[in-house]
Inverse folding.
């Protein structure tokens, strides 16, 4: 359960893949979501 202080804040997520050899791909677009109650 989230504390009331976190409600209505925005969380931002960026992802990318990494191979078993440590090679990384490009970053994804940023996905954002508002934290609810």
């Amino acid at each position: 359960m989230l504390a009331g202080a976190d409600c209505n804040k925005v969380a931002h997520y960026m992802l990318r893949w990494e191979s078993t050899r440590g090679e990384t791909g490009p970053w994804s677009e940023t996905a954002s979501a508002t934290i609810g109650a």
Summary: The mean pLDDT is 91.
